[in-house]
Amino acid sequence: MNRNDRRIAIGAIVSCFTALMLLLLLDGNDSTTLADSTQHDSMNATRSYSSAPRSYSGSYATTSQRVVEAFPFDPNTADSTQLLRLGLQPYQVRNIYKYRARGGVYRRKEDFARLYGLTVKDYRRLEPYIQISPDYQPASTLVAAQPAPRDTLRYPHKLSEGEHVVLNTADTTQLKRVPGIGTYFAKEIIRHGQWLGGYVSVDQLDEITDFPSSAKKYFVVSHPHPQQLNVNRLSLQQLRRHPYINYYQAKAIVDYRRLHGNIHSLQELSLSKDFPPEVIHRLEPYIEY
Fold first, then answer.
1. Inter-residue contact 287 to 239 (CB < 8 Å)
2. CA distances (Å), 68 to each of 54, 61, 62, 216, in order?
3. How far is CA 4 from the centre of its chain?
4. CA distance 198 to 184
């Protein structure tokens, strides 16, 4: 590049640089002016806002609230306006309408307490005002309650004081006439009597588990004829079937017969530890020789 070309290039660069500086200076002045103008406008707006009357200053602080009322109502017929006036929420009112549309009926005050979202506090507030029409009660309530005729077979008349039942001959119907005796004990009395071979004393009823002792005074045993066991002929297994003879007692009888021959009295067994006096006394009516 010769000297003239260099001069031209340097001149062009200087010109461009000068133009660029001028543009930057002009842009800075415009921005400053715009910022000042904006700040000035903002300050004026702030002063205008501050000086303007604030007629709406309390609009958010004083949000209107529903006035809750209290008056008699029937939840089966009350409309939505009434239910809302009572303080119920819109969704609760919708649930009441859905319940009634499905055929639901509030028959008691307590039924209303099942309303979804109803608090204990709200129910206690509304409970005195719930008035359910008799029209929503079951039709069966219109029928006067009549005393059912007494089933004398299922519920027989009980014996009076001084009346008695013969223990060995009474059936379950007669036994159930005894105060304190129902179906269960009537069957147990007969079962235990058959197991013994017949009753010889009213006190034998105490051998029945949980038997009511107050019922014993209504029983009598007249001319007892119990089935008797022949202690000289029956085997060990046959002897032990009786409720008053256990395995060891039956074995003692069989062993005595084997060693001494026939038994003529239970007193012959009194030397055995298995036959104390009370056992012999209880067993004697059921033994033959």
1. no
2. 32, 20, 17, 70
3. 114
4. 19
Q: How far is CA 5 from CA 10, 115, 142, in A?
A: 9, 100, 126
Inter-CA distances, 133 with 72, 92, 233, Å: 12, 21, 83
Q: What is the pLDDT of residue 8?
A: 72
For the segment 14-35, the average pLDDT, to the nearest whole number, is 60
Domain ranges of the chain: 80-138, 165-220, 236-284
Comparing CA positions, the residue from 212, 145, 160, 203 lying closest to residue 182 is 212
What confidence tens digit (pLDDT) does each residue in 54-76 have? 444 443 344 456 788 989 999 99
The 3-state secondary structure of the chain reads: CCHHHHHHHHHHHHHHHHHHHHHHHHHHHHHHHHHHHHHHHHHHHHHHHHHCCCCCCCCCCCCCCCCCCCCCECCCCCCHHHHHHCCCCHHHHHHHHHHHHCCCCCCCHHHHCCCCCCCHHHHHHHHHHECCCHHHCCHHHHCCCCCCCCCCCCCCCCCCCCCCEECCCCCHHHHCCCCCCCHHHHHHHHHHHHHHCCCCCHHHHHHCCCCCHHHHHHEECCCCCCCCEECCCCCHHHHCCCCCCCHHHHHHHHHHHHHHCCCCCHHHHCCCCCCCHHHHHHHHHHEEC
CA 162 to chain centre: 46
CB 231 within 8 A of CB 240: no
